[in-house]
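Protocol step 4 of 6.
Sequence for Formaldehyde-activating enzyme (Pirellula staleyi) entered exactly as in the expression construct, tag removed. Do not edit the line below.
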Amino acid sequence: MAKKKKSAKKSSKTKPLASERIILRTGEALVEGEPAWSAAEPEVIIGELDGPVGFAMANLLGNQAKGHSRVFAILNSDVQVKPATLMVSKVTVKRSKYTNILMGSVQAGIAHGVLDAVRAGDIPKHKANDLGIIVSVWLDPSIVDATDVDYELLLQVNREATAKAIHKAMHCEPTIDWLLENQNKVTHYFHQLAVDGQLG
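Step 5 output, structure tokens:
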């Protein structure tokens, strides 16, 4: 469901205050490589583990759904990242190849993206044990039929997209002022395809 779009101009420089409770922040980003299967479009929710985000994470982890397994983002088995990050697939997982890519290159990319966000200061380091992140993950289903999968590219695209979505969540981007100013300048990619008769 990835769509080409212009990035919202970064118009907010505010960072969360060191003492501020982060109840619930949301963010979304799109990063695309050259092949169609390489697009990453995560949606993230970030908040305190003792608040609604933490409760949602516990419920998701304890209430698994076939085809939409919820797993923590890890650098490798036995190395979970902080803040605790729960991955949820937007696509119903039916094939082992898809599972292996999702729980391999994509999972590693998301884990690195979370740590990149901490290193960049988007997530305060001192709150790494207090926050939770839910990442709704997009991995193009066409990847199971691709014969030219570049796993390093896949990792890098998901890493960049995750860090970008977290940055936007923590800086409340795009701002309401930007949205109101640009509302009629932004065209939904798939809507335009439909208008142009290119959507099957």
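Step 6, annotate. Residues 96-119 form the longest helix (24 residues).
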